[in-house]
Amino acid sequence: MNAIVTPHSVGSDDSLQRLDRLAELSQRLLAAAQRRGASQAEVSCSEERGLNVNVRMGEVETVESTRDRGIAVTVYFGQRKGSASTADLREESLEATVEQACAIARYTEDDDAAGLADAALMARAPAGGAFPEFDQWHPWALDADRAIDLALACERSGRDSDARIANSDGASVGSGESLAVYANSHGFVGRERSSQHSIGCALIAGQGDAMQRDGWYSIGLAEADLEDPAAIGRRAAERTVARLQPRSVATGEYPVLFSAEMARSLIGHLLGAVSGGALYRKASFLLDHAGRQVFPEWFAIDERPHLSHGLRSAAFDAEGVATRESALVEGGVLQRYVLGSYSARKLGLQTTANAGGVHNLAVKANAGGFDELLRGMGRGLLVTELMGQGVNPVTGDYSRGAAGFWIEDGAIAHPVDEITVAGNLKDVFARIEAVGSDVDRRSHIGVGSILIGGMTVAGTE
């Protein structure tokens, strides 16, 4: 279900009642699967509501209000698996969905790794209580008119803050709520509800071939988490005009500082390499690296799924397995992989409660803020934008287009673009010299700027 309409408001909060209905529906579907002879079954039910507004050059471009729902049924007949989904809640449609899943399972081949996660690993709610919510539910009573006003104010602030802002890619305001129930034939029923809101702006400075584009955005679980729209616009303008009159640099090997928002991508490459799917397919440059030194001895990453107000907090993963705080990297050593039950069985290991992805990650800082990192690197490249997908997940070879700023004597000297940064991710990880305390809070991957001791930088000079 997806419709373009104008109004959207939260009104009275009926989310708990809606979760009750989804939970009751999941039990009916599980019973229907078992009546058809399934040895195991699992059901995921979700409902989402959202409002997104986009404006450009002082005019409204789009107003989109969405209401989506989805029901997914997976059944197992021994080691044979079948899945089907629907958004139609009519009884005949639900019965047909279960029947389709069962029919698929009957005609698939056995898979030794198929099946629910082990029953003993299921999360358990406190006696007589519910799973903790970790302060993630903050609906915003935002209607279309108010969202438009906020987006216009954000863009106007940016355009008015500097005469060199010649154009705009627009400003946006978004608000969304999500309800989800996961249940399986082990008797597990887990309910989750969360909200997320955002304001962003992208501006263009200069004229003709000399134009530069940049922006800024803010996201949060609650309206109160968001930066002021006017401040977002001004920040977008500052970032945009700072990129005017860029130069290239002479090709060579230099220290490279990835700003906090770009440093996340390095951690993302690590996660891709240690994920179960890449490992059992032997498509990872970190194959067989658990227990081995990958980073400097001081480097550490912890997974913290139970953070209050965390962007990706959860008491259980997508299979109902209980989450727990644990180290991903400690003392520079890769402690474990990132596994759901299927990939774990493929590897002869146990799930790490990461079906559906990692939860909140905290990368240890060993340095001060951004300015301290600039002073410490002395001379080199600050990367604030990355382009292209030049990463080989099998070999770890890394080569991406980049833009940012050249650093001389520990300070920004001038903007740069049309450059490439390259290396091998094993070497890049080993050559990390510092992680800053300037953590970008707009992601579930909490990391500050990362300084690499040396990478190949290819310019046009």
From TrEMBL:
User: Could you tell me which SUPFAM superfamilies the record lists for this protein?
Assistant: Putative modulator of DNA gyrase, PmbA/TldD
Gene Ontology molecular function, alphabetical: metallopeptidase activity
Which residues, if any, are the signal sequence? none
What range(s) does the Metalloprotease TldD/E N-terminal domain occupy?
A: 41-105
Q: Does the keyword Glycosyltransferase apply?
A: no
Q: Name one Pfam family in it.
A: PmbA_TldD_2nd
Q: What enzyme class is recorded for this protein?
A: hydrolase
InterPro entries, per the entry: Metalloprtase-TldD/E_C, Metalloprtase-TldD/E_cen_dom, Metalloprtase-TldD/E_N, PmbA, TldD/PmbA_N, TldD/PmbA_sf
Q: Which UniProt keywords apply?
A: Hydrolase, Metalloprotease, Protease
- Boundaries of each Metalloprotease TldD/E central domain copy? 138-244
The chain positions of domain Metalloprotease TldD/E C-terminal read 251-459
Per the UniProt entry, the Enzyme Commission number(s) are 3.4.24.-
- Has keyword Repeat? no
GO BP field: proteolysis
Q: Name one GO cellular component term.
A: cytosol
**Similarity field:** Belongs to the peptidase U62 family.
Please identify the protein, giving its name as recorded.
Metalloprotease PmbA
